[in-house]
Amino acid sequence: MTIAHAPWLWPVMRPALRRFFDRASAGWDERTRAGSVDHLAAFAAACTRIEPAPERVLDLGTGTGESALFLAREFPRASVRGVDISEEMIRAAQAKVGLDPDGRIAFRVADAIGLPYGDESFDLVAQLNMPPFFDEIARVLRPGGHVIVAASWGEATPFYTPPAVLERGLRRRGFESATVGETDTGTWFVARKRIRG
Ligand SMILES: C[S@@+](CC[C@H](N)C(=O)[O-])C[C@H]1O[C@@H](n2cnc3c(N)ncnc32)[C@H](O)[C@@H]1O
Known about the structure:
Layout: H1 2-5, H2 10-24, H3 28-32, H4 37-47, E1 56-60, H5 66-74, E2 79-84, H6 87-97, E3 105-109, E4 122-128, H7 134-140, E5 141-151, H8 163-171, E6 175-182, E7 187-193
Parallel strand pairs: 1-2, 1-4, 2-3, 4-5
Antiparallel strand pairs: 5-7, 6-7
Helix pairs in contact: 4-5
């Protein structure tokens, strides 16, 4: 995938991509079946591999927030943050949680190439149908934390990144125990950031 192979292209592509997803946000859930069983199956399968249950979870490229809401249901004790480069997507996601009195789920506009979070802030970073930004995934994950990269429609998914590319990119940044899997429609990849020592 272009961004995984050539992240320096990202600043050139970013404005057009943001506009594209801003426009695409209206009616996104109906058109893409976001939140349906098929949309979430591969993501859900990957979540079953995450142990221990995470406390701080980040959903990258959250879109209208269905994957972040799934993570919040799957890990009921975790705080979940969802980020997206598109303001309109984040507006749609935010509308689904309202004010969330516990503050357990929150959405914000952010670019995955430069996240507004400190080093080692999360113990799970997940992304569904989104290109990988390896350096930032590695930076914001705690040692021992996991990354999930899932594609709802496998190789047919826009932004699909082959497991070999994911494995190579993450191994170079200190990840291990890569595991891959498939569901009826989708594919998933999980790896763990090595514990120092
Ligand atoms: C194909 S959509 C997937 C949305 C959602 N995860 C889903 O499966 O319905 C990709 C999303 O990633 C977002 N995105 C793309 N590049 C991004 C980046 N660098 N940082 C944050 N979000 C990004 C887009 O705005 C879009 O909402």
